[in-house]
Design a protein that fits this description.
The complex is a heterotrimer of chains A (166), B (192) and C (337).
Chain A lengths: L1 H22 L3 H21 L3 H26 L11 H23 L4 H4 L9 H11 L1 H22 L5
Chain B lengths: L17 H4 L2 H15 L23 E3 L14 H5 L5 E7 L12 E9 L8 H5 L5 E3 L14 E2 L1 H4 L17 H8 L4 H4 L1
Antiparallel strand pairs in B: 1-4, 2-3, 3-5
Chain C lengths: L1 H33 L15 H11 L10 H17 L10 E3 L2 E3 L9 H11 L1 H10 L3 H32 L4 H6 L7 H4 L1 H14 L11 H4 L9 H25 L16 H27 L7 H30 L1
Antiparallel strand pairs in C: 1-2
The chains are: A mainly alpha (166), B alpha+beta (192), C mainly alpha (337).
């Protein structure tokens, strides 16, 4: 099937680019590879018939957050390799944490019902209408609470941005 | 203190009002002005097809005049070189040999006469200084070139053609006083 | 169906390229006329062959790449800009359906139900080409231009999306086709959302990096901004994509606010479906041309903003106004129910 090949291509792209995020020497390259990863994941969303999620994913992650990342990295001019080698215990802790996260994810997805994923185009949950109904009917409270969270973060940013002490 | 020009304006530092602060009226005003310019008559002269009209006394390339019999008027006196503020003129004088009377008007002539057109500022002081009316500025434009050497114009370029049909009319450049002066038979050079 | 889509895609691509090509000529002509000059008039009658001459010149210019540049990203920058500029046209409805041999074809590449969001996504990733190119040149001016471009784009994206939310609220759909079809005749969105239209227009200037918001390439301060180190056709791509962006943003504005391909009384002319589609397309094209003229008109009238003024306008004026607009629209919709 055609969409199978796209799936394999996108998965390979996502894996390759996320590995390259870690392996590339220049921070800018890392950021760009991460952006590529986000695009690959966005493609996966489209394969799952979740166009709204795909587009919002690209707008938020690739369009806003990664641009800010890129902006910061460029402004700090980190293109020279100035990172001091990390001590051995930091590396060990990082590897351990990574393995544990992987275990948790495997544990979560082992018991997961895979029927939906086998027929991705039947799922309507990622379309605007369905998503809106779910968000505003079933998950009204968490949705509004998260908006308050955003508001708090915005107020905090404004406070930090103000020069004079309050 | 009186204003230096009629258009001077007293600048004040007053707070701008809300209406001015939103800038939209000012922006629209500016855009209205540019829109007006869209329909004005364009000042461009489409050069090769249309040429701009020259003034009657335009000062362009020089010419070394000949007299009515086709003899060179220049006597290499050097007054033009002295008068030249840009020091663009050099010349070498030579004595007229017997048998050259139809070529040179007086006993002395300029064997070389060079004007450096890169130095020349086309002020016309050489023309004013010349007692023999030998040098005049014409309407012709000094052409651009690729090499600096080519801007040193010698007699081959400057001298007026011998052919009577190709003679250059400079009568417009001669002021009424000059014309009057030329008629004065008491002056020696007018008699000759 | 696939064949028709391919033809339509090529036609739209070709159209935007040709329009961009001739926009360069029209821009120079209009600049000349505004300044009491004539503009280019040597290549062909009225200078009509000038874009061709410019293109040939750009192709045959020396290809220069700085030694210290990041080679891959240096080439990726302009290509990405060009690619992204061409992507937006996919969701714009260029006209009503046409009928060929009894089959109905839609003059829209993809009628996705999230058309507006798609445009936002493309606009928001549009800055990558500039940032990558500016950084890869390894030049301080280019880097400054890139950094300016990114912060400017992020700032104005917000106000832009907020101004469109009102349109979405009124139409209740994210699909471009639906939004256009709700503006039949003279029932255009601009009459309901004048404030939103002005905000969107200003943001469109900023997003396409057009004067008075052309700070990323501000030649008085930054030599050439992000394309300082670019030459030949790579520079051409950057300049060209600006005009494509202009064309597309004109199309988006015409679609969202000026009723797209609708115009009063053209549906009462009694034309056959295909002729009607053609006339409708011409109407849309006229509206886009109108916006193109406004883009150029503003460019040759207004001086460039200072950077802090730009940021203040974006964050302290446009975003609060856009939020206010959303609020008013919400209240009015609620009262009308």
């Amino acid at each position: 099937m055609f969409s199978n090949y796209i799936f394999y291509f996108l998965s390979a792209l996502a894996l390759y680019s996320s590995v390259m995020v870690l392996l590339s020497k220049k921070p800018i390259h890392s950021v760009l590879y991460l952006t590529l990863t986000f695009f690959a994941i966005g493609g996966h969303y489209i394969l799952l018939n979740a166009q709204f999620l795909a587009i919002v994913h690209i707008i938020v992650y690739a369009g806003a957050i990664m641009v800010l990342f890129l902006f910061t990295v460029m402004l700090l001019n980190l293109n020279k390799e100035e990172r001091s080698p990390k001590p051995i215990w930091v590396k060990a802790a990082a590897i351990l944490a990574g393995i544990m996260l992987g275990l948790v994810l495997i544990g979560v997805f082992r018991g997961y019902d895979l029927r939906l994923i086998q027929h991705p185009m039947e799922s309507q949950i990622g379309l605007v209408k369905e998503l809106g109904k779910i968000l505003y009917r079933d998950y009204m409270l968490p949705f509004e609470v998260s908006s308050i969270l955003f508001l708090t973060a915005m107020v905090g940013a404004v406070l930090l941005g103000k020069k004079e002490q309050i | 203190m009186a204003a230096l020009t009629k258009r001077s304006k007293v600048v004040s530092n007053k707070k701008i009002s809300f209406w001015e602060k939103i800038y939209l009226p000012a922006i629209l005003g500016g855009m209205w002005i540019t829109l007006g310019h869209l329909f004005t008559k364009k000042t461009t002269v489409r050069y090769p097809e249309v040429t701009r009209e020259f003034s009657e006394i335009y000062r362009g390339k020089h010419v070394l005049k000949r007299d009515d019999e086709g003899r060179e008027r220049c006597t290499a006196c050097g007054l033009c070189a002295v008068a030249c503020p840009a020091e663009a003129i050099t010349m070498i004088a030579a004595e007229r040999k017997p048998g050259e009377e139809n070529l040179y008007r007086e006993e002395k002539y300029a064997s070389t006469y060079e004007i450096n057109m890169l130095r020349c500022i086309f002020c016309g002081l050489c023309e004013e200084a010349c007692p023999k009316e030998a040098i005049f500025l014409t309407k012709e434009i000094v052409k651009a070139d690729y090499e600096r050497d080519k801007f040193v114009y010698g007699k081959d370029v400057l001298l007026e053609p011998f052919d009577p049909l190709k003679r250059i009319d400079v009568s417009k450049r001669q002021t009424p006083e000059v014309l009057e002066f030329k008629k004065d038979k008491n002056q020696r050079h007018n008699v000759q | 169906m696939l064949i028709f889509k391919t033809i339509l895609a090529s036609a739209i691509l070709l159209l935007s390229l040709v329009v961009a090509m001739y926009s360069t000529l029209i821009e120079r002509k209009i600049a000349g006329f505004f300044q009491d000059r004539l503009g280019p008039n040597r290549a062909g009658p009225w200078g009509l062959l000038q874009p061709l001459a410019d293109g040939i010149k750009l192709f045959f210019k020396e290809e220069f790449m700085p030694n210290t540049a990041d080679k891959f990203l240096y080439i990726l920058g302009p290509s990405l800009t060009m690619l992204i500029a061409c992507l937006t046209s996919a969701v714009i409805p260029w006209g009503p359906d046409i009928v060929i041999n009894g089959q109905v074809f839609s003059l829209q590449m993809a009628d996705v139900n999230i058309g507006i969001l798609y445009i936002f996504a493309i606009v928001s990733i549009g800055v990558y080409g500039i940032m990558i190119g500016g950084w890869a040149s390894n030049n301080k001016y280019a880097l400054l231009g890139a950094v300016r471009a990114s912060s400017q784009m992020i700032s104005y994206e917000l106000a832009m999306s907020l101004s469109i939310i009102t349109i979405v609220m009124m139409s209740g759909s994210l699909s471009m086709r639906d939004i256009v079809n709700q503006q039949q005749g003279f029932n255009w969105n601009i009459w309901y959302q004048p404030l939103g239209f002005i905000i969107f227009l200003i943001c469109a200037f900023a997003e396409t990096n057009r004067s008075p918001f052309d700070l990323p390439e501000c030649e008085t301060e930054l030599v050439g901004g992000y394309h300082t180190e670019y030459s030949s056709m790579k520079l051409g791509f950057y300049l060209f994509s600006e005009y494509i962006n202009m064309f597309i943003s004109g199309a988006v504005m015409a679609t969202l606010f000026l009723g797209g391909y609708h115009f009063p009384f053209i549906d009462k002319l009694g034309l056959s479906p295909n002729a009607f589609a053609f006339v409708s397309f011409l109407v849309l094209f006229a509206k886009i041309t109108f916006f193109g003229f406004i883009f150029m008109w503003v460019r040759w009238t207004l001086p460039r903003f200072r950077y802090d003024q730009l940021m203040r306008l974006g964050w302290k004026a446009l975003i609060p106004l856009a939020i206010l607009n959303v609020l008013i629209t919400g209240v009015v919709i609620l009262l009308n129910q």
